[in-house]
Amino acid sequence: MAVIYYNNQNFSDNPVAEQKLKLLYVCQTETMIPTAMHAHDNLLELQYISGGKALIRIDGHAYQVQKGDVVIYNAGVLHDECADANFGMSFYNCGIKNFKLPDLPKNHLLPHDVKPILHTQDKADCIETIFRELFEQVSQKKIFSGAICHYLLNALLVILMEQITHEKTARRDRFDESFRRCKKFIDEHFTENISIEQMSEIANMSVSGFSHHFKKILGLSPGQYLIRLKIGMGQKLLMSTDKSITEISMELGYDNVSHFNKQFKKFVGTSPRSYRKLWVGNEQFKNLNHIYNQLMKS
């Protein structure tokens, strides 16, 4: 047996060691159900693809992901996920609060112009093991789960930060200033009755020219993009609040709940009620406001 002495670096040199990280949730999922456009305003989400394939859109850019990839969702960045129809998609993900790196906004792991997909390669087994153990510690509520999750989370973040340095790839920004201004307006006002004329005017383009340009850049028509924003927010509210489906549809700007139900089922493949029952349970959703408020407290 060989003894290997380690004296290269102090073990306390951990860029996240002193941070009061908070694990908000951890999830293990195998699904064909798409998740429409949404953002996490106050948290960083990390996702490990454990099987299958998917098309993921992040901040208007499309990425094909597969087993072994890690997807980084900075706070406030719009994204959606659509599993491959032939392979499906399985993944682990976790939500983290109180993460801060120098020169970056709170709960951001990457600068906005860096590709948010990491190809973990030889680190894949290690990263998957950490996600699996996080899930087991939380789901089984073991006696020292809090302490174990804290150190696992630290390890995961440091491993990902090291991986970022090896494949730090800038992504090409296809948005000119007028289009970025228009997209920002849509993202902030999608629950209102926005017309295609309003959008094209903000982009300083004709209606037909704007529609063509929008679809060329985002791969979706302006109308499809609006619907995805509404459905994505609907999915988020179904999973994080105890609001009724009628209240949610009104909040999203629908004239009536049947219209919301129809568009939701067309995109997601199931009704809002069934979606909530699948992900939250038939009774637990009644306590979601309390649970979510407790989680988001500092």
What is the number of domains? 2
Largest sheet: 8 strands, antiparallel
The percentage helix is 40-55%
SSE string, helix = H, strand = E?
A: EEEEEEEEHHHHHHHHHH
- The CATH homologous superfamily of the largest domain corresponds to Jelly Rolls
- What percent of residues are in strands? 15-25%
How many E-type strands?
8
Q: What is the CATH topology descriptor of the largest domain? A: Jelly Rolls
Structural class: alpha+beta
CATH architecture of the largest domain: Sandwich
Shape: globular
Average pLDDT over all residues: 88
**Count of helical regions:** 10
CATH class of the largest domain: Mainly Beta
Radius of gyration, whole Å: 21 Å
- Unreliable spans are none
| C-alpha end-to-end distance | 48 Å
List keywords for this structure.
single chain; 298 residues; alpha+beta; Jelly Rolls; Arc Repressor Mutant, subunit A; 2 domains; eight-stranded antiparallel β-sheet; 10 helices; 8 strands; 19% strand; globular
Lay out the secondary structure:
Layout: E1 22-31, E2 35-38, E3 44-58, E4 61-66, E5 69-73, E6 79-83, E7 89-97, E8 117-119, H1 124-140, H2 145-166, H3 177-189, H4 196-202, H5 207-218, H6 222-240, H7 245-251, H8 257-268, H9 272-279, H10 288-296
Antiparallel strand pairs: 1-7, 2-6, 3-4, 3-5, 3-6, 3-7, 5-8
Would you mind describing this structure in some detail?
The chain is of the alpha+beta class and 298 residues long. The chain has 2 domains: 22-166, Jelly Rolls; 177-288, Homeodomain-like (Arc Repressor Mutant, subunit A), CATH 1.10.10.60. 42% of the residues lie in helices and 19% in strands. The protein contains 10 helices and 8 strands. It has helices at residues 124-140, 145-166, 177-189, 196-202, 207-218, 222-240, 245-251, 257-268, 272-279, 288-296; strands at residues 22-31, 35-38, 44-58, 61-66, 69-73, 79-83, 89-97, 117-119. Strands 1, 2, 3, 4, 5, 6, 7 and 8 form an 8-stranded antiparallel beta sheet that branches. β3 and β4 form a beta hairpin. α4 (196-202) packs across α5 (207-218) and α6 (222-240) packs across α8 (257-268). 30% of the residues are buried. The mean pLDDT is 88.
